[in-house]
Amino acid sequence: MDQKTIQLDLRFDEVNLLLKALGNYPSNEVYALIAKVQQQATQQIPPPSKATKSKDVPHQKNIQLDLKFDEINHLLKA
User: Fold this and answer.
1) CA 59 to CA 22: how far, in whole Å?
2) In degrees, to the nearest 5, what angle opens at C-alpha 44 toward C-alphas 69 and 27?
C-alpha cells in the first residue's frame, strides 16, 4: 500500500520539541523518523554565519516536514 505524504508546517521550537518527545522512545522504533525530520529541517535552515544578526535566528522560521501517515500516527502517540 502506497502511503500518502503529509506536510506539516512547524516552528523551529516545535520541531525541537517533537524530536525531544521522540527521544523518549526506543531508538530502534524512531531512529529513521528522527533522521528524516533532521534531514528535512537541515535543508531549510541556513548554516550560521558571522554576518547573521541575532534577530535572524532560525527559530523564527517555520520548517515544513513531509511525513507518511504512519509516521504522523507514531508522533501522535508520543
Assistant:
1) 19
2) 50
> Among positive and negative, which fits the CA dihedral 23, 28, 29, 32?
positive
CA distance 13 to 6: 20
One-letter amino acid at 9 equals D
Position 41 scores a pLDDT of: 85
DSSP, collapsed to helix, strand or coil, labels residue 47 as coil
pTM: 0.65
pLDDT recorded at residue 64: 78
Contact 57, 1 (CB under 8 A): no
How far is Cα 9 from Cα 17, in angstroms, rounded to an integer? 14
Task: Return d(Cα 44, Cα 42) in angstroms, integer.
Answer: 5
